[in-house]
From TrEMBL:
UniProt xrefs under PANTHER family: PTHR33376, SIALIC ACID-BINDING PERIPLASMIC PROTEIN SIAP
A GO-annotated cellular component: outer membrane-bounded periplasmic space
Location of the protein in the cell: Cell envelope
A Pfam entry, by short name: DctP
Full protein name: ABC transporter substrate-binding protein
Family indicated by similarity: Belongs to the bacterial solute-binding protein 7 family.
UniProt keyword list: Signal, Transport
Chief location bin: other
Organism domain of life: Bacteria
PROSITE patterns per UniProt: TAT (PS51318)
GO biological process: transmembrane transport
Keyword Signal among UniProt keywords: yes
Lineage: Bacteria, Pseudomonadati, Pseudomonadota, Alphaproteobacteria, Hyphomicrobiales
Length: 339
């Protein structure tokens, strides 16, 4: 998959080839002299900022460690789906990966950032995830043998796209066959809103939309663009219903076995990459509204409050408060306000 248009190319990939950042793996010469040969897997497309900035981090790590560390980056789910890569990291077969939803099967509170309509803006998102809520979540992953880096990657606020009928309010979702990731937060949210949520792997999504297996889907604008979903969808509702971020994971035992200077260099580079990637997504989201509109797609900005009211009446928030527990829910509401 490639990001279409001059915006993404200029912003994220111009000059990367010359800098040695555009390839999926490190240069052979660097790999040969490296003492630590590490692999990083991601489902992000190769030219998504979430992959581009990690490749940039790999170069920074090599430089900071005098070539001792060769971090090879594999985008586009080259090493398997997110669930597969997450399992590989847990077992120590894969060194690093980033994901959002699949980790909830191991640590349910790992998905608390995705509570529907919890965050109104990025100021609240980063206050929470770089603050006490994020620290609580990371501590739960540590209990199951995973080291999670402090800075999350931004996957963006998720928005609804449809092929024919625009979504202007919750009534428009009734009966809509909408593709969702196979995570209970998504499934229960859209079920409570009256839709027919259908889990489909992201790699199969374009074909599912094209053949009308589903009528709509929901993703951040950067993924709607990079996967060219706008080619088979004609309406985007900027619902921002879920903020979706990627934790960066590694196996805690393998991580602890690395020398402290190596860990420090990797941590610094991945932190810098995450902060730059956040800026990329923010800028890209603003630009992509214009870019996708030019492709013939209509945008709408539904009022979020009616969606919240339907979810509240359906017991969605009460149910998930019970599942996550009072402590993390209180932390969430510290930043998001009462739900």
């Amino acid at each position: 998959m490639t990001m279409r248009g001059a915006v993404s190319r200029r912003s994220f990939t111009a000059g990367l080839a010359a800098a040695g950042l555009a390839g999926g793996a490190a240069a052979p010469a660097r790999a040969q002299r490296a003492k630590y040969r590490l692999r990083y897997g991601t489902a992000f497309p190769a030219d998504h900022p979430g992959a581009v900035r990690i490749r940039e981090a790999a170069e920074a790590i090599a430089k900071a460690t005098n070539g001792e560390v060769d971090l090879q980056v594999y985008p586009n789910s080259q090493l398997g789906g997110e669930a597969d890569m997450f399992s590989q990291v847990r077992s120590g077969a894969l060194d690093f990966m980033s994901t959002s939803g699949v980790n909830q099967t191991i640590v349910p509170v790992g998905g608390i950032n995705a509570v529907a309509f919890a965050f109104d803006d990025y100021a609240k998102v980063w206050a929470a995830m770089d603050g006490a809520l994020g620290a609580h979540v990371r501590a739960q992953f540590a209990k199951v043998g995973l080291h999670v880096f402090d800075r999350m990657l931004d996957n963006g606020f998720r928005n609804i796209t449809t092929a024919t009928k625009a979504v202007t309010g919750p009534d428009d979702l009734k009966g809509l066959k909408i593709r969702v990731p196979g995570h209970q937060l998504w499934v229960t949210m859209f079920g409570a809103l009256g839709a027919a949520p259908t889990p489909i792997n992201f790699g199969e999504l374009y074909a599912a939309l094209q053949t009308r297996i589903v009528d709509g889907q929901e993703n951040p604008l950067a993924l709607i663009s990079s996967a060219k979903l706008y080619e088979v969808q004609k309406h985007v509702a900027l619902t921002g219903h879920i903020w979706d971020g990627h934790h960066i994971f590694t196996n805690a035992k393998r991580w602890a076995a690395m020398p402290e200077p190596i860990r420090a260099a990797v941590t610094q580079a991945l932190s810098d990459a995450a902060l730059k990637e956040r800026e990329d997504i923010l800028r890209l989201n603003e630009e992509l509204v214009a870019t996708i509109t030019k492709a013939g797609v209509a945008f709408g900005r539904p009022d979020k409050q009616p969606f919240r009211e339907v979810l509240r009446k359906a017991g969605f928030y009460a149910d998930w408060k019970g599942k996550f527990g009072p402590e993390p829910w209180a932390l969430l509401e510290t930043y998001a306000g009462p739900l």
